[in-house]
Amino acid sequence: MALLTVSKVEKSFNQNKVLKKIDFQISKGEVIVIIGPSGSGKTTFISSLNFLNKADSGKMTFKDKQINLASPKKDDVLWVRRHIAMVFQNYNLFKNKTAVENITEGLIYGRGLSKEAAFKKAVQELKKVGLEEKKDYYPSQLSGGQKQRIGIARATALQPDIILFDEPTSALDPELVGTVVRDMDKLAQQGQTMIIVTHLMSFARKVATKVLFFDDGQILESGSPDQIFEHPQNKRTQAFLSAIAEDR
Amino acid sequence: MSFSKIIISLLSGLPNTLTLLVFSFIFSSLIGILVAWLSLQKDKVSRGIARVYTGLVRGTPPLLMLLLTYYGLPKLLSFIGIDSNQWAKIFFGIFGLSVGWGGYLAEAFRSAYLSVDKGQILAAYSVGMTDQAAFKEITLPQTFSIAIPNIENLLIGLLKATSLVYVIGLADMYQNATSLSNVNQGVFQLQIFVILAFIYWVIALGIEWFFRDYRRRYVHLNG
Questions:
Q1: Beta-carbon separation of A138 and B122 below 8 A
Q2: Quick one: closest CA in B to A108, which residue?
Q3: B189 phi and psi, to 5 degrees?
Q4: How large is the ipTM?
Q5: Chain A residues within an 8 Å CB radius of B218
Q6: Structural domains of chain B, with CATH
Q7: Which of A1, A69, A115, B186 has the smallest C-beta neighbourhood within 10 Å, fewest atoms?
Q8: Tens of pLDDT along B12-45?
């Protein structure tokens, strides 16, 4: 049974329709990777799932609760955000907080943990990504790869039902991509439900249970990694994949 | 006239200078925060009030602001039955400077608030923080630290503006310097004003030192 279903999601910026009646669902343990050209609506779509971007219309069913995407109740928005975490392209670590505080904020305000319990949990999460010794560092003192791994630790600390990844490696230097990908791969092995927007096709192939190809605000094609990467049916998918073939 | 006599005479105005500086800074900051908040509201009336206030006070010389306060405020207060004739002059000095500097501080706070990276607020929401928690933990501290260099400049400007209170007959360091110079028929004028400049410079250095500490603490925000 689906953990999250959204239907007929629409979004426009001025006259420009960026999401056109999108239907989507994900079940527990699935890793759905969204690929597609820049400007196709991938980021807008995943950020509408935790209301960082408010859709113009559409319905969501999450953990059996129905929510109107265009006019959600404030409590529902908070509830969803506390169960669907996000990892950003530009990390968005809180600049005025240390690495460990970046993780405790969500645990204290989102999960209602005490400061002590949040600190303990945050240190554990940092340990998991091998950055325990950086706990008192500010984001400006960390490398891009370290920042993103703390971004991932911030998300996983909340023990969310789903984690959204918005091009988590796009802002990284090539030699730092591997460490972040390894952390994500580990999460997938552990059964974490994830929705990942990425341009890393080899990673998509390895980790995805399902791949969606986005173009012009629509899902043009979806299927298993094998189907999409080996036998794409849609011409746009074929053109997109051949254009970025060198990454495969 | 001896060097020490000049210093003692000038420093006798220091308490007034510092009182004006500290209280005007506190009140102008409060006005600045309020006006910045008004200017960031969605409704036109609030924004209009903020715009008119900021425009007026920024377009009025501080000297004139002090004169308007000294002569105008008692008249305004008398309309509502308050007699301010016995009030100390320093009150009017603080009032005039606070109203004048409030406009500048409002702009410093407003621009700093708008400079906070929107991604920071999105990240706060994404971990389940409420609007209030995101404001308290993320937006406010970052606004403050972005505003610091501007605030420091404005505080040093305010220090210099305190020397204008001579127009309402308040005895600050500058007023004492001119009196001392006049009493001596201008013979020691240069020495007096050089020493006065030195004292202002030392206070300005103190302000810079205070903010240098803050800047060091917040340097990581620029990374």
A1: no
A2: B129
A3: -50, -50
A4: 0.92
A5: 96
A6: 16-170 (1.10.3720.10)
A7: A1
A8: 889 999 999 999 999 999 999 999 999 999 999 9
